[in-house]
Amino acid sequence: MGQTIIEKIISNHSSKKARAGDIAIVDVDLVMATDTTGPLTIKAFENMGGKKVWDSDKMILVIDHASPAPNEGIAVLHDLMREFANEQGIKLYDVGDGICHQLIMDNHHVKPGQLVLGADSHTCTYGAVGAFATGVGSTDLAGVMLTGKTWIKVPETIKINLTGKLQKGVTAKDLILHLVGRFGIQGATYQAIEFTGEVIEKMSLDSRMVIANMVIEMGAKAGLVDLKGLELPYKYDPVKADPDAHYVKTIEIDVSQLETQIAVPHSPDNIKGISEIEDITIQQAFIGSCTNGRLEDLHAAADILEGKKIHPNVRLIIAPASRKVFQDALSDGTVEVLSAAGATFLPAGCGPCVGTHQGIPGNNENIASSTNRNFQGRMGNRNSNIYLGSPAFVASAALKGKITNPKRRLSI
Ligand SMILES: CC(C)[C@H](C(=O)O)[C@@H](O)C(=O)O
Ligand code: SF4
Prior knowledge:
This protein has 14 helices and 18 strands. By secondary structure, the chain is an alpha/beta fold. Catalyzes the isomerization between 2-isopropylmalate and 3-isopropylmalate, via the formation of 2-isopropylmaleate.
């Protein structure tokens, strides 16, 4: 019997042909840690007796979660990371460079068919370029830093084929929210998902990243997006599934009828169609994160806000996913449009996504957000409510001061 993409990638990184359910010892192509997990990882590495990482070219550190440092304690942790990176000759991205996942993608640190581990749950984002990338704990990552290897149980695979055409104002975010709602937050636990079909083939890299990024919200180990229709600035050999590969499930979805999808408080699988929840008042709007902080996302917001002013009772906060995203949005006039509409720009980084700093909501406030998680307290206040959706949804809500269908705000 043939192999799925993940079985092939794991086989290529180990000495045996891998099948779902096997335990494989694999060589890792790249490891990554952030300012939330990096200091713990470095300590664990030293506690294991680590002196020199197995390959300093295969490790990346990023200061993005609380960046610039909001207090002395975090400033000390940032310094610890800088010192370690210096001693070991490891590439470190510092304050303002951007979110770890965006930097790894922007700078082509990951390529199709590679196997990457990150001490961050959204490492699965790199499935957008057909890599098997997944999140691990700090101690596991420290082990890889010593040896360049880890063990992995080969996941089973679900195949999702997406056909039809997305309606105006309906995006990759709506699609993945719909799937998270359908599966539930544990619906694909420890499984890989292969995404194929004409909808994927027409998607930009930015949109493919949205899909791969949120598979963790269904508990999946990896989301592997078909590379058809994707142009990359380098040559590569795509890893393809065999025609007789075994899938635990194959799902066909026609996306043509899908309306804007929103995750309502307090879980990313608590999905409603926009028409069910229109008119809820909001006080804060956030566009950013490794899910939706890219150029395409800022463009979608600018399309809605150009020449207009946001509602006077709303704070619209934008954190570009990377410095490059910010610079591109600056040079094409997008920053100007959004700033004139009343948006406040934060440095490139995670920003308010995880509630560490910058934009913690007040009591009883409702937030429209382009991020990926809306658990109670996620943005730093348990007495606030987060509504997750696309950047077009967030911009429309910021404009009207309440949840509204982005379709009505789009001129195209
Ligand atoms: C803080 C960090 C450990 C966490 C993660 O692993 O995902 C964060 O990035 C998140 O999005 O919740
Ligand atoms: S942007 Fe949010 S989800 Fe993404 S890595 Fe940062 S904290 Fe995690």
